[in-house]
TrEMBL record:
Residues 1-11 have a biased composition (Polar residues). InterPro entries: MAVS (IPR052787). Residues 1-27 are annotated as: Disordered. This is Core-binding (CB) domain-containing protein. Residues 15-27 have a biased composition (Basic and acidic residues). The lineage of its organism: Eukaryota, Metazoa, Cnidaria, Anthozoa, Hexacorallia.
Length: 161
């Protein structure tokens, strides 16, 4: 009788891809799908076809550079930095996970320097344009502060008696 061991198992590429996919959380899968749809929709509007299996880093850098500059919300508003970060992470996961499993890193590789500079610029511009510096209320006038202190010290005195 032949002994069954892990040495005899032979998982095919499809089985290995499924196993890897099972390890990913459902929320991550949904976020990836949403981010890729956002990128695909942007590409479709420009009649661009991007095949993540064979696009070169130089071509992808150029596309991402333009994408980060132009992508907006459904209502035409600039995307928040966290939304843009989520989309970039989704594209990165799509590229590096099975079945594509490319070794390029759009977050760190030097080929993506200009795309990442644009990404950073859009995040900083959003903060500048959409979140102006907060306006603070004026401080409490000295006379009102004395009245408040009196009110609270009276309250403390009445609790101690």
């Amino acid at each position: 009788m032949e002994e069954i061991s892990s040495q005899n198992s032979d998982l095919g590429q499809e089985d290995l891809d499924k196993l890897e996919a099972k390890g990913q959380a459902e929320n991550t899968k949904r976020a990836t799908s949403w981010g890729i749809k956002k990128f695909d929709k942007w590409c479709d509007k420009r009649k661009l076809k991007v095949d993540f299996n064979c696009v070169t880093p130089v071509e992808l850098n150029e596309l991402l550079w333009k994408f980060y500059a132009e992508v907006k919300s459904e209502k035409g508003q600039p995307l928040t930095p966290s939304t843009l970060t989520g989309i970039r992470a989704a594209i990165h996961r799509q590229l590096t996970s099975a079945p594509i499993s490319r070794s390029m890193n759009i977050l760190q590789d030097s080929e993506f320097l200009s795309a990442n500079k644009m990404f950073d610029a859009k995040c900083k511009l959003y903060t500048k344009e959409m979140n102006p510096k907060p306006t603070h209320k004026s401080s409490i006038a000295a006379g009102d502060m004395l009245r408040l202190r009196g009110y609270f010290s009276e309250g403390l005195d009445s609790n101690n008696s």
